[in-house]
Amino acid sequence: MLTEEFDWLGGQLTSQAVPPDEHSWVERFGVTASYRALRDGIRDYYRRHYPLTAAARTWRDLNPGAGHVSRLCHEPRVAVAVLEGMLSPYRSNGRLRVLQPFVPAAADTDGDRVTSVTLRHRDTGELAHVAAPYVLDATETGELLRLSGTEYVTGFESQAETGEPSAPPVAQPGNMQAVSVCFAVDHVDGDHTIDRPERYAFWRDYTPPFWGGPLLSFRAPSPRTLLPTERIFDPNPDDDPLLVDADQRRNPGDHNLWTFRRIAARRLFEPGAYDSDICLVNWPMLDYFEQPVIDVPDAAANLAAAREQAYSVLYWLQTEAPRPDGGTGFPGLRLRGDVTGSADGLAQAPYIRESRRILAEYTVVEQDLALAVRGDKGAVSYHDSVGVGMYRIDLHPSTGGDHYIDVGCCPFQIPLGSLIPRRVDNLLPAGKNIGTTHITNGAYRLHPVEWNAGEAAGALAAFCLDRGCTPREVRNTPGLLAEFQSRLDREGVERHWPDVVGY
């Protein structure tokens, strides 16, 4: 039984409209076989259904948007189609049932086990009661942890707890990374200016104390240096998308905000297929870090404020943003709710960077993988590795007033211990709610790592059902662990890195 709150399956990749953030070696190694099948499927979908140019069609590593943030920037709807296709055989043979749109509302427990989950239809309020031997929490905010009473942590742990060099002396559970409500735009003839948001004046004048100027500006701190950096905004530039080098090792790619997360590059398609590029807006000015949206009584109001901030960013772009010709405003920017699948024009779901995280048998800490700590030794090698990942330790400004933390990271492994709660026996985290800290979550929260964590959690539940054991027994029994890891190996889950250096 799979449940989904929004109209599209896929979360971060689809309903949140975030192109995949991936490491520099993704085309060769460092992801699971099933994640590679997703990526290959997205490219194949474009080749089968879209009017690509001859050059784009033969581009082995097709990047449909020629965005700089990823080697596979694409429209979210394509990922939805591919994910649905991957699930279709299991729906047809009756092994999978999808309840959509449903949200978890309650959980029943018996001692250290979750016995059932109550789900509520998002729109009608209809209730569904589901009992199962295992429950996997792949929600963006770790909702099942709260509902089931599974011990978890939020926000910033203290240095005394984790020993992390970048942690504060006192824990800050309410200090969480910014959320963003993304949206897609193109730039065409005409005036497509939206209605002025009610609190637009607040967002236009909002100046975070560490920002060095107004939030709504093309001048913003560089995440890696924290120095004020001037970006440009050049809709539909005269660039050759085939020459885009989307490699975060060499260039973060955010100089021109239009091409940074572009998800459709018009010149990769036959003339006339697209009136304009399509740009996915997920920029520094979109980060909502005024208040947390987890474990606070006014979470819904804070999410509404994040959506209003997104509209205010768009309105500022359409009316007041400086143009290269000396004028102001880009009224030709058109909100593309059809691209994000939403009636209000924005992404269906907010982009959640930081979740509730289980108190795990093993918690990954900064000193396990930070390049500044580990150097040429590489990340800590875990005997119970169930996968790999790589991304810089990338923390956006947070609700506690912290600036970016964006530092080098070593290619790392995912320890099985980070998937096992300290107490509860049959609930497994399957996303960004695994046993990381506020700091290491910044490296583990990206698309291929979350996919790997979820795949490992699902495989673990299946293995435990087959062998009549618990996840804890698998990790702590050498024979069972070796058997489980061998099963992952056969399924194409890479558990070790070749000799590569972080960035």
Number of helices: 15
Number of domains: 2
Helix content: 25-40%
Q: Separation of termini? A: 39 Å
Can you tell me the residue ranges where pLDDT is under 50 for at least 5 consecutive residues?
A: none
Instruction: Work out the radius of gyration.
Output: 22 Å
Strand order across the biggest sheet? 11-12-8-13
Sheet/helix structural class: alpha+beta
Q: Compute the average pLDDT.
A: 97
Shape: globular
Sheet having the most strands: 4 strands, antiparallel
Total DSSP E strands: 19
Beta fraction: 5-15%
In short:
InterPro entries: FAD/NAD-bd_sf, NadB. The protein is an alpha+beta fold. 27% of the residues lie in helices and 15% in strands.
Tell me about this structure.
This is FAD-dependent oxidoreductase. Pfam families: FAD_oxidored (PF12831). With 503 residues, this protein is of the alpha+beta class. The protein folds into 2 domains: 101-175 and 353-490, no CATH class; 183-340, no CATH class. The protein is 27% helix and 15% strand. It is built from 15 helices and 19 strands. The chain has helices at residues 33-49, 54-57, 76-92, 143-148, 159-162, 200-205, 257-260, 299-319, 337-340, 366-369, 371-374, 441-444, 447-467, 471-476, 478-490, and strands at residues 2-3, 98-99, 102-110, 113-121, 127-131, 135-137, 152-153, 183-187, 219-221, 228-230, 262-264, 278-281, 333-335, 357-358, 385-389, 393-395, 405-407, 412-415, 427-429. The strands form 8 sheets. A 4-stranded antiparallel sheet has the order 11-12-8-13. A 3-stranded antiparallel sheet has the order 3-4-5. Strand 4 and strand 5 form a beta hairpin. Helix 1 crosses helix 3. It starts with a strand and ends in a 13-residue tail after the last helix.
